[in-house]
Amino acid sequence: KKTKGDPKTGQEEESHTCCGCRFPLLFALLQLALGISVTVLGFLMAGISSSLLVRDTPYWAGIIVCVVSLVGLVMLCISYQPDEKTCVQFTVKLMYFLLSALALVACVLAVAFAAHHYLQMTKFTCDTILESCQCKLDTADPLGRTFIYQDAADCGNLTSMLNLYLLLQMVLNLIAALVCLSACFVMWKHRYQVFYVGVRFYPLTATEGQQQKV
Q1: Which of 180, 153, 156, 188 is nearest to 49 (CA)?
Q2: pTM of the entire structure?
Q3: Domain tally for the chain?
Q4: Which spans are transmembrane here (predicted)?
């Protein structure tokens, strides 16, 4: 048993006390801010043209990041119990870890889709036809694919705004992915013993030492 004067016990209690100041509060607030930004920007992109695909307006990635941040804030409200004596505490921590991993994948996909669309936009040749913007990669190819953006009376304005939004989506989702990755790493590194279920080795070592002395 650990006594009150045990320095190891004091360090653990101090670390958990300080833990609430920087983790998961810092990551949760960053995720909330980034998630809201990505979601709002995604809906703004959807308002530019009704023909944009869901993958090109990654508000879904922002919503996932927002949910992760809310779970992190809920984890702050749960009082710390050593050795996971409460099922709720373990469930919330595990949920936060898994949702952070899911948000990481979603943000990486959003970056990939935005980068692909942005590269296509740089090669487009667009013309305004019947209040729609029709773009082609190769105007010399009569069988080339035509990309149509509905509800766009000005192709120049649409392409410039869409390029800006795509760049912002790439930057925001990349930062959100790095934050989620950092959250998973810190959770795994500093809370690894929380997820371990089994016999701890240091009590067994101490018992063997006492038997050898006897």
Answers
A1: 153
A2: 0.73
A3: 1
A4: 25-48, 60-82, 94-115, 166-188
